[in-house]
Amino acid sequence: MKEKRLSSALLLLSAFLAALHNTGAQKPIGGGCDGCDLMFAGMPKSLDWQTTMTDISGGEPLEIEGVIFQEDGTTPARDVILYVYHTNAQGFYAPAAAQTVARRHGQLRGWMKTDAAGRYKFLTIRPAPYPRRDIPAHIHPVISEPGKNEYYLDDYLFDDDPLLTKEKRDAQGGRGGSGIVRLTKNAARKWVGRRDIILGRSIPDYR
Ligand SMILES: [Fe+2]
């Protein structure tokens, strides 16, 4: 009987904690998705809408920009943190020697906080696919909206990637809108591309 009361109390407590979590009364860090809370490890206190990755000496420069919109697709979403991380030009998540946190994300990681126009931009190097695998090259994005748990969007993928087969394109969920980016090389021989993001959308919403 005692045990039963105890387990009911525990159930009530966990329901209460879950409710707190969902209303944002607790700090919305962790628990948003598997491993994506690593976005907060080493995150600078002050964030700008644009950033440059730590070390962009080892590959072809790549700049991606866009606007993050609210679910209506037209209202800019301000104060949204976008965290991105990706492999280096050899296809590895290689941490810097002195890196003490999030080593499995490598050193090519960066954070932005959208401005009033919802803008974000990051300068990095073009990632390579994992060696000897058939997974297209990609950049992982994690979003943290004010008062919500963090979550992954569809990866940034590159339209000219031979590993991005029709089958793989069709398999994309499109969270945040399509992550397939068309890159061009500008006059300064820098790869440039654009991806706008619509929060709360996935491909079935706009097909
Ligand atoms: Fe990856």
Overview of the molecule:
This protein is of the alpha/beta class and 207 residues long. The chain has two domains: 27 residues; 176 residues, Sandwich (Protocatechuate 3,4-Dioxygenase, subunit A), CATH 2.60.130. It has three helices and twelve strands; from the N terminus they run αββββββββαββββα. Strands 1, 2, 5, 10, 11 and 12 form a six-stranded mixed sheet that branches. Strands 4-3-6-7 form a four-stranded antiparallel sheet, with no helix packed on it. The protein has a two-stranded parallel sheet with strand order 8-9. It binds fe (ii) ion. The site of fe (ii) ion has 2 residues, from loops.
Summarize the structure.
This protein has 207 residues and is α/β, with parallel strands linked by helices. It is built from 3 helices and 12 strands; from the N terminus they run αββββββββαββββα.
Topology:
Layout lengths: L1 H22 L26 E3 L8 E9 L11 E6 L22 E5 L5 E7 L13 E6 L6 E2 L4 E2 L7 H5 L9 E2 L2 E2 L5 E4 L2 E2 L4 H4 L1
Parallel strand pairs: 1-5, 2-11, 2-12, 8-9
Antiparallel strand pairs: 2-5, 3-4, 3-6, 6-7, 10-11
The structure holds fe (ii) ion.
Fe (ii) ion binds next to loops.
Straight-line N-to-C gap: 55 Å
Domains (count)? 2
Shape: globular
Structural class: alpha/beta
What is the H-and-E element order? Answer: HEEEEEEEEHEEEEH
Indicate the multimeric state: single chain
The CATH class of the largest domain: Mainly Beta
User: Which band does the percent of strand residues land in?
Assistant: 15-25%
- Can you list the ligands bound to this structure? fe (ii) ion
Reported CATH architecture of the largest domain: Sandwich
CATH superfamily of the largest domain: Aromatic compound dioxygenase
- Output the radius of gyration: 19 Å
Low-confidence stretches: 13-30
CATH topology of the largest domain: Protocatechuate 3,4-Dioxygenase, subunit A
The largest sheet is: 6 strands, mixed
How much helicity do the residues have? 10-25%
Number of helices: 3
Question: Would you tell me the overall average pLDDT?
Answer: 86
Count of extended strands: 12
